[in-house]
Design a protein that fits this description.
- The longest helix is centred in the middle third of the chain and has 31 residues.
- The chain contains three helices and no strands.
- By secondary structure, the protein is mainly alpha-helical.
Length: about 170
């Protein structure tokens, strides 16, 4: 049989522990009863010079990864795209209204198309508003998130006013 493998000693540590006053006695911790200052700096463990107390020798100190500013940008971009596409859809329906009025179904066709577009627009504007608000909370440029919040907020407000106005016109 061969001898058991021992882990290699890192190059910045000594191969054998070095004690300034010799070998510690049984039951005595290395460095116990010693005052920092006699050849030691405060906060250093005498067994591993150069290592700060609280760090594990042989393991690198882990620091959190720096956050990039692109995390919030993705949500903001998606929110702007949803809000812009919804605005374009509403604009297209408004521009096609004369063609829908003159079609075979007339007003019924326009009411059906505008009702479906209103429901889809409400859901899309609400999603864009929520994504915009989430994007503002994250690190990154808040410009896209602000644009999405503005477009979605104005779109939702327009839909609500349109719904309330059409509801009251039924009773006139």
């Amino acid at each position: 049989m061969s001898e058991p493998q021992q882990p290699p000693v890192p190059p910045h540590l000594p191969a054998t522990p070095q004690h300034p006053t010799g070998q510690p006695g049984a039951g005595q911790q290395p460095g116990a009863g010693q005052q920092p200052g006699a050849g030691q700096q405060p906060g250093q463990h005498p067994q591993y010079p150069g290592q700060m107390q609280g760090q594990h020798p042989g393991y690198p100190v882990q620091t959190p990864a720096p956050r990039s500013g692109r995390e919030g940008r993705g949500l903001g971009l998606i929110a702007v795209l949803i809000a812009g596409a919804t605005f374009a859809l509403n604009l297209l329906v408004s521009l096609l209204a004369p063609l829908l009025y003159s079609s075979a179904g007339g007003f019924e066709t326009f009411n059906a198309v505008s009702g479906v577009v209103a429901v889809v627009s409400f859901l899309a504007y609400a999603a864009a508003l929520v994504l915009g608000l989430l994007a503002v909370k994250r690190a990154g440029s808040p410009l896209l998130a602000g644009v999405a919040i503005g477009i979605a907020g104005a779109g939702l407000l327009g839909l609500v006013v349109n719904f309330v106005a059409s509801f009251f016109y039924r009773f006139m």
